[in-house]
């Protein structure tokens, strides 16, 4: 029997009213798994393990798990993997975001309830890494993230293909009648061909980079392709690093701080990364009581250059980013703007990490700070009478000729309404109009899907129109592009001004002024408000997780987390 009450299998004993009996019983059941007494006495590294038949992005996790375990064992601790739910982006209905908080609760509670001295978080597909970071931040046990890594690209004729920007590009060609059904079927089989996450700077890759910027993963690991041997070496090193975290405990709350969150926001802006990352970073930081007002994003955006030339904004893919120098190169360019005293999971500060020599950088993929791709950050927050608590525009992925513009609203009241009318040849719409989608926010029945990338109506796309202003309370896939205003807050289902817009109203967009305004006088809006009935469902009519979600989910400016999962003191003023 060990005297060590705080570590290994002696940690967090099941309560039978007799501590020694609890430990004796636990060890006898653990020994049934074939562990020697020597192994039973070791410190434990838990591994939050998320392979799933419904998650193509994690299909190489068995091999990665072996590498993590190898690293843990070689460093002298016992690795024990445990399953949590896994979220495969395209396999979930109505949308994966709805289940991110469920996965975070699963992760948090299993870290807390089971005996482990540190934990390795294995995630990758869009919502899995934020869910694991949220859970680990709340559990606050020493934790380190290893990501799946991106897919490799494929080929179709002379073209390189990578999920999922090229998915959308080819689908747009198909909708415009430029390619036929036979060709799109061939493309369908070649878009996603290896293990790993989407091959562009979508949400998964953005979150992998932000995790490294926060200091929660090992240096240089964010962009290693899923199938590259370096990914397995990174997994092994992550296992070993987790053991080091036991000896000199560093908790997520010491790594994820206001300063490291600011570093992550800088990196997000320099990457021209996914709009979803704002929601996820807000949720992760929120677990530690750190708010991210969108005004902060704008302040940083004004002074952070875009450095990375990757799809969906630019022309390269994640494998190019890795070979060009990856996150190490980006962080070195941003060094004067970063908080270098932030602690990372290795025990080094960010500044100490960046003192190490860097491999040559391919400047066609990662620009230098003195010759950036854009002088200002890739994302901008908009405020105004249409979005009193803010909205997001990925300006690096948008058409600049549409940035200062008034337009006539063409309103779709729901996703169903959109699907029914978008390709109606009689739809009254022109390229100068602003498409508006209502009731696609967090508390709507659709649960804030990635539907903000409204398709261009066929009558316009068939004439070659590629972009127009689109506004909604929905999200957009990190792999999509266009002049798309997202996350309008408060959402329509909560009675936000978006709910009051009618076809024919004028809306003014000004990226220069960071504004989006509904040009309807207050008396008329008051009349509309008086007859407004929300489309959201009554939580009392729901059961199970649907009910919990409907009762607890916060708006986009609260990271769409659940109110009760935030620390008690930071819950005020959030609805
Ligand atoms: Fe998993 Fe894109 S589907 S990252």
CATH hierarchy: architecture of the largest domain: 3-Layer(aba) Sandwich
Query: Which term fits the overall shape?
Result: globular
Ligands present: FE2/S2 (inorganic) cluster
* CATH fold assignment of the largest domain: Rossmann fold
Query: How many domains make up the coordinates?
Result: 4
Helix content, binned percent: 25-40%
Global Rg: 24 Å
Distance between the termini: 50 Å
Strand arrangement within the widest β-sheet reads: 7-8-12-11-10-9-13-14
The total of helices stands at 20
What would the average pLDDT be, to the nearest integer?
Answer: 95
- Strand share of the residues? 5-15%
Secondary structural class: alpha/beta
Instruction: Give a short account of the largest sheet.
Output: 8 strands, mixed
The level-1 CATH class of the largest domain: Alpha Beta
Short recap of the structure:
The protein is of the alpha/beta class and 575 residues long. The chain contains 20 helices and 14 strands.
Notes on the protein architecture:
This protein is α/β, with parallel strands linked by helices. The protein has four domains: 42-152 and 194-354, Response regulator (Rossmann fold, 3-Layer(aba) Sandwich), CATH 3.40.50; 154-188, no CATH class; 379-530, IlvD/EDD C-terminal domain-like (Glucose Oxidase, domain 1, 3-Layer(bba) Sandwich); 543-570, no CATH class. The protein contains 20 helices and 14 strands. It has helices at residues 19-31, 37-40, 61-74, 97-113, 128-139, 165-175, 181-188, 203-214, 229-247, 252-255, 258-271, 276-286, 294-302, 318-324, 326-334, 350-353, 415-421, 458-461, 522-530, 544-552; strands at 44-49, 78-83, 118-123, 143-147, 154-156, 159-161, 379-384, 387-394, 404-412, 434-437, 470-472, 484-486, 506-510, 515-518. An eight-stranded mixed beta sheet has the order 7-8-12-11-10-9-13-14. Strands 2-1-3-4 form a four-stranded parallel beta sheet, sandwiched between helices. The protein has a two-stranded antiparallel sheet with strand order 5-6. Helix 3 (61-74) crosses helix 9 and helix 4 packs parallel to helix 5. The longest helix has 19 residues, at 229-247. The chain is globular. Bound molecules: FE2/S2 (inorganic) cluster (FES). Residues 57, 89-90, 125-126, 197-198, 202, 204 line the site of FE2/S2 (inorganic) cluster.
């Amino acid at each position: 029997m060990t005297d060590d009450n705080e570590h290994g299998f002696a940690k967090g004993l099941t309560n039978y009213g007799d501590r020694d009996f609890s430990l004796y019983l636990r060890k006898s059941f653990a020994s049934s798994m074939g562990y020697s007494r020597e192994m039973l006495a070791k410190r434990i590294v838990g591994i939050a393990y998320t392979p799933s038949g419904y998650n193509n992005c994690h299909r190489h996790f068995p091999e990665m798990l072996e590498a993590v375990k190898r690293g843990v064992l070689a460093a002298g601790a016992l690795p024990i993997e445990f399953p949590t739910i896994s979220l495969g982006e395209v396999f979930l209905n109505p949308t994966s975001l709805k289940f991110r908080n469920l996965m975070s609760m699963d992760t948090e509670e299993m870290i807390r309830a089971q005996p482990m001295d540190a934990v390795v978080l294995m995630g990758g597909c869009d919502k899995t890494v934020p869910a694991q970071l949220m859970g680990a931040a709340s559990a606050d046990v020493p934790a380190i993230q290893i990501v799946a890594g991106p897919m490799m690209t494929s080929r179709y004729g002379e073209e390189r293909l990578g999920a999922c920007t090229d998915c959308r590009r080819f689908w747009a060609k198909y909708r415009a009648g430029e390619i036929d059904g036979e060709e799109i079927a061939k493309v369908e089989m070649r878009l996603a061909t290896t293990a790993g996450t989407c091959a562009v700077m979508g949400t998964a890759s953005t979150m992998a980079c932000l995790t490294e910027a926060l200091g929660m993963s090992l240096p240089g690991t964010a962009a290693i392709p899923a199938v590259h041997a370096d990914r397995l070496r990174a997994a092994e090193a992550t296992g070993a690093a987790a053991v080091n975290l036991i000896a000199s405990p560093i908790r997520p709350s010491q790594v994820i701080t206001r300063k490291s969150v600011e570093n992550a926001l800088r990196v997000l802006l320099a990457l021209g990364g996914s709009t979803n990352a704002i929601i996820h970073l807000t949720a992760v930081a929120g677990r530690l009581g750190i708010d991210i007002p969108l005004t902060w994003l704008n302040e940083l955006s004004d002074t952070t250059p875009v450095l990375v030339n990757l799809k969906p904004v630019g022309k390269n893919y994640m494998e190019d980013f890795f070979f060009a120098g990856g996150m190490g190169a980006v962080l070195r360019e941003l060094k004067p703007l970063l908080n270098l005293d932030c602690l990372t999971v290795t025990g080094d500060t960010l500044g100490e990490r960046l003192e190490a020599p860097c491999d040559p950088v391919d400047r066609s993929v990662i620009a230098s700070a003195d010759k950036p791709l854009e002088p200002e950050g890739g994302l901008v927050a908009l405020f105004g009478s249409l979005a009193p608590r803010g909205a997001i525009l990925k300006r690096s992925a948008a058409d600049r000729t549409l940035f200062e513009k008034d337009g006539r609203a063409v309103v779709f009241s729901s996703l169903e309404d959109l699907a029914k009318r978008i390709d109606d040849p009689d739809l009254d719409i022109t390229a100068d109009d602003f498409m508006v989608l209502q009731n696609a926010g967090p508390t709507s029945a659709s649960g804030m899907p990635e539907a903000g990338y409204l398709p261009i109506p066929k009558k316009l796309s068939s004439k070659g129109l590629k972009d127009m202003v689109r506004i909604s309370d929905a999200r957009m896939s990190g792999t999509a592009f266009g002049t798309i205003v997202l996350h309008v807050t408060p959402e329509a289902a909560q009675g936000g001004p978006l709910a009051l817009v009618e076809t024919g109203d004028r809306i003014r967009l000004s990226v220069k002024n960071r504004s989006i305004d509904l040009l309807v006088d207050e008396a008329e809006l008051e009349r509309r408000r008086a007859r407004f009935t929300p489309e959201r469902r009554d939580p009392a009519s729901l059961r199970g997780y649907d009910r919990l979600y409907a009762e607890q989910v916060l708006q986009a400016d609260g990271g769409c987390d659940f109110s009760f999962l935030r620390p008690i003191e930071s819950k005020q003023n959030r609805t």
